């Protein structure tokens, strides 16, 4: 399957993307992770991307599209993929449509995560990541480490990303409203969009996503998943 997971920052896209991709045995492709790899390596692309990311702005389309086109061209995407963080605006969505059309394929589903903005700010501003392993994530209120500033798993230093600071989060939300939200309308016209509540436990949200793409079992409350 070829799936796009979309929603505002803090909706839990990264968490759900990892679990959903694993469940479906497809590649999880995160635009954010690709850029952070370049930032950590100190490449020119990474330096340029950091300037935009740290101020809450989107990385320019030309750079983003080029990076994702190369990634989608790798052999490990042939069985399917889940895109997380791309496309973020209409030009990127149109570019993605073209890339997939050139390979004779297209998206199978678009999952749109919904969440109140106040919840987003609380989730992101309190988040802390481990410098040794970014999959080790804590929250100052909801899941604090046993020792302040240290990862419970490996002892690595915990830090707050520049794009997780409150002022930057609010700027990211403004960008999402003006540039990313219209992407949902772009794909809704093709009948691909299922809107899913991102509130609740991780497993509850995952169950809604699986049900939306026809992979779930049992009953999920209708308020949690809707086809639009």
UniProtKB/TrEMBL annotation:
PANTHER family: NUCLEOTIDE KINASE. It is an enzyme of class 2 (transferase). Its EC number is 2.7.4.3. Gene3D superfamilies: P-loop containing nucleotide triphosphate hydrolases. The gene is adk. SUPFAM superfamilies: P-loop containing nucleoside triphosphate hydrolases. It catalyses: AMP + ATP = 2 ADP. Keywords: ATP-binding, Cytoplasm, Kinase, Nucleotide biosynthesis, Nucleotide-binding, Transferase. NCBIfam families: adk, PRK00279.1-2, PRK00279.1-3, PRK14527.1. Catalyzes the reversible transfer of the terminal phosphate group between ATP and AMP. Plays an important role in cellular energy homeostasis and in adenine nucleotide metabolism. GO terms for molecular function: AMP kinase activity; ATP binding. Pathway: Purine metabolism; AMP biosynthesis via salvage pathway; AMP from ADP: step 1/1. It comes from the Bacteria. Residues 127-163 form the Adenylate kinase active site lid domain. Residues 30-59 are annotated as: NMP. GO terms for cellular component: cytoplasm. Monomer. Its main location: cytoplasm. Consists of three domains, a large central CORE domain and two small peripheral domains, NMPbind and LID, which undergo movements during catalysis. The LID domain closes over the site of phosphoryl transfer upon ATP binding. Assembling and dissambling the active center during each catalytic cycle provides an effective means to prevent ATP hydrolysis. ATP binds at residues 10-15, 127, 137-138, 200. Pfam families: ADK, ADK_lid. It is found in: Cytoplasm. It comes from Streptomyces uncialis. PROSITE patterns: ADENYLATE_KINASE (PS00113). Belongs to the adenylate kinase family. AMP binds at residues 36, 57-59, 85-88, 92, 161, 172. The keyword Nucleotide-binding applies. This is Adenylate kinase.
């Amino acid at each position: 399957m070829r799936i796009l997971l979309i929603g505002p920052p803090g909706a839990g896209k990264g968490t759900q993307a990892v679990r959903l991709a694993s469940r479906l045995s497809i590649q999880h492709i995160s635009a954010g992770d690709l850029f952070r790899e370049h930032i950590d390596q100190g490449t020119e692309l990474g330096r340029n991307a950091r300037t935009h990311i740290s101020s809450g702005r989107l990385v320019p389309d030309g750079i983003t599209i080029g990076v994702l086109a190369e990634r989608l061209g790798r052999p490990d995407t042939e069985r399917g993929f889940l895109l997380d963080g791309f496309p973020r605006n209409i030009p990127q969505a149109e570019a993605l449509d073209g890339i997939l059309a050139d390979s004779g394929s297209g998206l199978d589903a678009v999952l749109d995560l919904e969440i109140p903005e106040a919840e987003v700010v609380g989730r992101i501003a309190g988040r802390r990541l481990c410098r040794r392993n970014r999959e080790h994530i804590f929250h100052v209120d909801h899941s604090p480490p046993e020792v302040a500033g240290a990862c419970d798993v490996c002892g690595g230093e915990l830090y707050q990303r520049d794009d997780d600071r409150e002022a930057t989060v609010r700027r990211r939300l403004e960008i999402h409203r003006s540039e990313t939200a219209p992407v949902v309308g772009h794909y809704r016209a093709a009948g691909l969009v299922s809107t899913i509540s991102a509130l609740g436990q991780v497993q509850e949200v995952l169950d809604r996503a699986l049900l939306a793409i026809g992979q779930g079992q049992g009953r999920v409350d209708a308020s949690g998943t809707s086809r639009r």
